[in-house]
Amino acid sequence: MTNAATTSHHARSIAISWQSLAIHACLIIGALVMIYPLLWLASSSVKPPNLIFSDLSLWPARLRLQNYVDGWRGAALPFSTFFLNSFIISGFAVIGNVLACSMVAYAFARLNFALKKTLFALMMLTIMIPLHATLIPQYALFYNLGWVNTFLPLIVPKFLAVDAFFIFLMVQFIRGIPRELDEAATVDGAGPIRIYWSIILPLLTPALVTTAVFSFIWTYEDFLSPLVYLTSMDKYTVPQGLSLLMSSKGASSWGPLLAMSLLSLVPLFLVFFIFQRRLIEGIAATGLKG
Amino acid sequence: MSMIAQEKLPVSATRRPAHRQRAAVGINANNNAAAFLFLSPWILGMVCLTLGPILASFYLSLTSYDMFTAPQWIGLDNYVKMAFEDSRYYQSLKVTFTYVFLSVPLKLAFALGIAMLLNRGLRGLGFYRSVFYLPSLLGGSVAVAIMWRQVFSYDGIINQILLKFGIDGPSWITSTDYALYTLVALAVWQFGSPMVIFLAGLKQIPQDIYDAAEVDGAGSVRKFVSITLPLLTPIIFFNFVMQIIGAFQAFTPAYIISGGKGGPADATLFYTLYLYEQAFTNFQMGYASAMAWVLVGIIGLATAISFLSARYWVHYGDER
Amino acid sequence: MSVHLNRRALLRHGATMMGGAALSSLPLASSFAQDKVRVRFAGYVESQEQLTQTLAVLKLYTQKHPNVEIIPEFTNFGAFTDKIATETAGGNAPDMFSVNVDLLAEYARRGVTTPLDSYIPNPINLSDYLQSAVNAAKFDGKQFAIPNDAIGPAIITNASAFEKAGITLPPEMWTWEELAETASAFNKALGPRFWGVEDAGGNYIPCDIFLRSRGKSMFTQDHRLGFAPEDMEAWYAYWQKLRETRGTPPGDVQALAGNDDPSTSGIVAGRAAMNITLTDSFAGFQALTQDNLILHMMPNGFRGGEMKQRHYCYAGNSTTVSAKSPNQKHVIDIIRFMHFDPEGAKTYYVGSGMIPCSKAGRDAFAATGSEADRKIIAYLDVLQKEPAPPRYPGVPGMTGMLTRANEGVAFGKLTPKQAAEQFIREVSARLKK
């Protein structure tokens, strides 16, 4: 346990262990509620189609692993293509968001400049507009730039900090960092760039990791933007690959659809599982423990 | 780095927000050159990518635009129609406000509660954290739609259980009385994102402060009330504002019921769903754009009120 | 096509992305070359089988015509409508794309697509095609699309459930009263959680057939409403009565079942015997249940009234050509190949789940097709014995309007009369545009 320090003083006392037993019991019950639908998905993904919706039991009466083979192979392209495309786009989105949003957040949180409040309000405005209202002008813009059917419309905006969610997130985290640290560094002669790089960024690790995880997951799951910007099938991402399977009039879609739906969650789960550890370990590396 | 941290950190943990920042001196002086250097990606993105489409959508809100032929200027007609002639518009407002008022507090309460629980030195912490985040990974995918039906539909697990007690339950997910609440339940079930942000916020609270408080003999309740809660307020505020914005824009949950048509009988007609229907089913992009700008006004107002209230309850580490 | 996750592939993808060049790894678009004609073909597919065969026929075409490169841009119907609207509005419509009857009217009316009359009958000869389908692909008297398949309205009927309940299915030419009586018998025979027919009150085609049984129709040929308010009131009252006699499920149970999604249907869940839908859903329904499903006609009249075959066939999927496409000649040749080249047509249709729109194609299928294919063709043949007047184009969002009004009645918020008024008000507002 990396953060055992929190409870180390008490962990051995009996009262606490009863308490922790109760907590574990609650957590396990909660966990079951949380994952029941996933269990259903897992079980249905290995059922033959005529049992998926007619037999509700979690234990498949007959196994059909062929769903995975058929789904992976795909009618048009193998799912490996869709996974690769998704990984490339999501990977760049992570880098773009972490770099650009942390820079902008630092300026909003720590530096004073003209029109600060106005610009901040403008930034917040950009997250308030429903996606569908700006979709067509935005499409026309990217089309005229010649970016349609490339990954650019999905990646370049991330490097230009258009995700105000993450800027605002990091602003809040930076503002939680005591200003005394910056001031001490200023006394030592550090400028804003050095302060950003060697004080703020390391202390911001939890927020940076959160941004990275969410950037990856949300970009990976995004449907509408890839749908309109990636026109040819070899550029499709995982959700678009799934939507190809989501054609209900055929005889052979449901099994592969559910199988690939489950499989498509695996990278997300791995990213989350690995990074949530970094979230904890990252803090140990910053020296905040004292 | 770590030396600075050691020297400077254990200051008073609970800061009073009432004092506004002192006059600009030293680090507080305007630093336009550096600031605009840091802002440059955002300014470039704003000018080149974001601002144009935003302004275009505002212009379109003043036109009649069917997407394929040139927009016709009609002034405020779209807004007038929305206010006086469209009863479904008011239904969409009602649905959306109900959803916001129920889902946001419940989701945040769950997220904070579980985050607090998970922030202790528990065995299997990573496992729990991941499991509790799992539903949020599903987002608004097909899988989640199918699964939610397996729980709340007429043949779903809840009714299977009720049947054992001789109760023939309704189809919760598609009854005009309960449909919206099953979507609120879905939002609460997907509390993972604010939970992770809370966890990150909890991690950022320096351990020294707790240690110092413990030396002073503070119990766990006092530590929570006078250290955790105040130091977490910037993050609580963030989650609060973003959840409100997100809930007003709720769109995908409605796809779980009636294929995104807002059914049954408009019981789940979310604002953005109706906007989408106007734009992409009825080809009334001008009207949809006008709806978008009214929504911006509503969300903007809610956000502005949140920011004003923040002065009284949000404690920032950078304020003295 | 197997993609190896090696460094070269990564680099290639990286280069594609950075340079923005349309480097493609699909077999249909083998390389980026200036001298090739590039044709973008966007569409919706409704089954894996259809997607496989469509890609196969396009590949076959490019093999025979190395100077043409076809870029396939397919997805499912829901995603397609958003995608095509965005692309068209943004000035980037594909050269050729799929439409159904409603989309055809929207895109033709606004000049997005081009009339194809000059290519008929040479090289596109539709004389052997279902005339109702050809007519349904017209707008303002001009042929705006070429029908790819043939579908017709039908009741997907669970024969096993009829057997179990000991209820006999009336003959094909039956009345709306008989449907109601048959449906209501199930609830008594098989228990309170089983209903005879799923609510079709919000469904366009059955409503149109019902109106035609009353000597009216939903729309007229000149794009106006073809019925009086009391006709629509009778429609909503019909379903309300069925709900009361428990022939149809209550509003909440019904609302989940979209009539084109088998996974939410009562037939698949094992609590309904009949579902009114279209023949192209048949294979999808059959795949999800172990029961034996058959196709049966909807009622064609009222007791004591005129009995006449009123089911029209049309295409669920037609191909249309963008007015701005510089490659119209090539597009037409691709369509010709898919429909009339013996090898091309065979690749496009066999195993696709689509029923060909041509008589020759259907005859070939009747001998060689799958069991589902043969059931559908036999059913369509019955309809063709006495062809009904075609379907006339409506307005977008029809299903939504009908369903909202029907659900208003089902949930006790509207009377059938109010529901009819609400529906007429909403449709009329659309028709004016």
From TrEMBL, chain A:
Q: Could you tell me which PROSITE patterns the record lists for this protein?
A: ABC_TM1 (PS50928)
Biological process per Gene Ontology, one example term? transmembrane transport
Q: How does it sit in the membrane?
A: Multi-pass membrane protein
What is the species of this protein? Chelatococcus asaccharovorans
A cellular component term from Gene Ontology for this protein is: plasma membrane
Q: Which family, according to the similarity comment?
A: Belongs to the binding-protein-dependent transport system permease family.
State the signal peptide span.
none
Question: Among its keywords, does the record have rRNA processing?
Answer: no
Q: What is this protein called?
A: Carbohydrate ABC transporter membrane protein 2 (CUT1 family)
TrEMBL record, chain B:
Q: Which PROSITE patterns match?
A: ABC_TM1
Membrane-crossing segments per the record: 36-60, 97-118, 130-148, 178-200, 231-251, 290-314
State the InterPro entries in the record.
Answer: ABC_transporter_permease, MetI-like, MetI-like_sf
Q: Which GO terms describe its biological process?
A: transmembrane transport
Q: Where in the cell is it found?
A: Cell membrane
Give the bilayer topology. Answer: Multi-pass membrane protein
Taken from the UniProt entry, a GO cellular component term is: plasma membrane
Report whether Membrane shows up as a keyword of the record: yes
Report the principal subcellular site: membrane
Q: Where is the ABC transmembrane type-1 domain?
A: 93-306
**Record bears the keyword Hydrolase:** no
Instruction: Name the UniProt key words of this record, in alphabetical order.
Output: Cell membrane, Membrane, Transmembrane, Transmembrane helix, Transport
Report the sequence similarity comment from the record.
Answer: Belongs to the binding-protein-dependent transport system permease family.
Name-wise, this protein is Carbohydrate ABC transporter membrane protein 1 (CUT1 family)
TrEMBL record, chain C:
Matching Pfam families:
SBP_bac_1
Q: Which locations, inside or outside the cell, does it occupy?
A: Periplasm
Question: Got a GO cellular component term for this one?
Answer: periplasmic space
Q: Which keywords, in A-to-Z order, does the entry hold?
A: Periplasm
SUPFAM superfamilies (alphabetical): Periplasmic binding protein-like II (SSF53850)
Keyword match Protein transport: no
Q: Which Gene3D superfamilies match?
A: Periplasmic binding protein-like II (3.40.190.10)
Give the family this protein belongs to, as stated in its UniProt record. Belongs to the bacterial solute-binding protein 1 family.
Q: What is this protein called?
A: Carbohydrate ABC transporter substrate-binding protein (CUT1 family)
